[in-house]
């Protein structure tokens, strides 16, 4: 019985990991600006305004182990809508805004405007542009 349970748990984790990798590969295939591999992490944050799925993305690279961070927006069918290079991962969703761990006075959110992602946003006093 114990061996059977261990086998079931192992199969479950394998299938879950395989599905997650397939989903990550699907996202990466939609943009030349995303790199997928063993040093890539996708973390789902949730849905913003019921219109977009939001993911934190990180990619560790180089001998110095530098990290590239992005926030990725997909429509509800999984189609890539846009990407922002960001200094830190997003921490929450509030209404139509994705929130970052910065002070509001220097910019701490990416907010939809009339249901659309802004082409330019400010986070922690820096300017970031939407791209694909």
TrEMBL record:
UniProt entry keywords in alphabetical sequence: Signal
Signal sequence coordinates: 1-22
Name the record gives this protein: WG repeat protein
Organism: Marinomonas balearica
Upper taxonomic lineage: Bacteria, Pseudomonadati, Pseudomonadota, Gammaproteobacteria, Oceanospirillales
